[in-house]
Known about the structure:
Elements: E1 20-22, H1 25-28, H2 41-46, H3 64-78, E2 82-86, H4 89-92, H5 102-117, E3 121-127, H6 133-136, H7 146-161, E4 167-172, H8 174-182, H9 194-218, E5 223-227, H10 292-302
Parallel strand pairs: 1-2, 2-3, 3-4, 4-5
Helix pairs in contact: 3-5, 7-9, 7-10, 8-9, 9-10
Amino acid sequence: MTSSLPGSFPGPFPAGFLWGASTSAFQIEGAATEDGRGPSIWDSFCKLKGRVDNGDTADVACDHYHRYAEDVALMRDLGLQAYRFSISWPRLLPRGRGAVNDKGLDFYDRLIDRLLEAGIEPWACLYHWDLPQALHDLGGWASRDSAGWFADYAALCARRYGDRVKRWATFNEFSVFTLFGYAFGWGAPSIADRAVHLQVIHHVNLAHGAGVDVLRALVPQASIGRCTACSPCGRRPTGRRMSRPPPCSTNTGTGPSPIRRSAATTRRGSPGRSSPMSSPATWRASPGRSTGSASTIMRRSTAGPIRS
């Protein structure tokens, strides 16, 4: 297959190129308080008055938690070869660490098995911005302990799903969620502090390294990486500045974007996407169990000379 779009990849596409789709747990799953799931920082952010357009939440979203079988059938009918989904940390570990939620684990078992039955390769992302609120209350990504929390969570996922999932990403766009959430305060957890932002960047990188080590040790022949945000680099119009933190919308193409399901909107609707920089003042964007092996594996990643 070759591409004919102006400025697009000058095909043919390389051998082994896969056509697929990508989602995040917070965007699509819904079932926010069902079957033992704990709250995430985005659940909390959506409840802040005036921070999300229309007061929208992801409590229902696309209802993927209940309708995943229909969604996989749609992917199959489209001829998709791969599906990159994210795993909800607070669904597996409602407190972020400690007691495991078996019903949460079972959901992703069902999803992965259904994908494989449909001939679709599962690609799992461990973190698409939905930090358990309980961990944020302990310091969240601003705490160096977060690297260990993430390593233990990664070990839980690797042991449970590594027999069937061989494509793994640690984080989705960590340059984005750290900047918007901790420097600008535009998204969860709504912090605007440069010192905290720098700490968070450091700790997320430590967590990435720890997660990679865990996945390498526990999932033989795994393909491991991270999801990055790539955009054309152009000149900003003279005098254009972002003057204040903008409101968020649940209709977005840049981050967690729950799509409401109600009598007035169809589940398969296409509400359109808004530019993340649509005006100087408005940005329409949305929003472990302790294991000895994970702790041992991650020491090499967190033992560098840099200290926060």
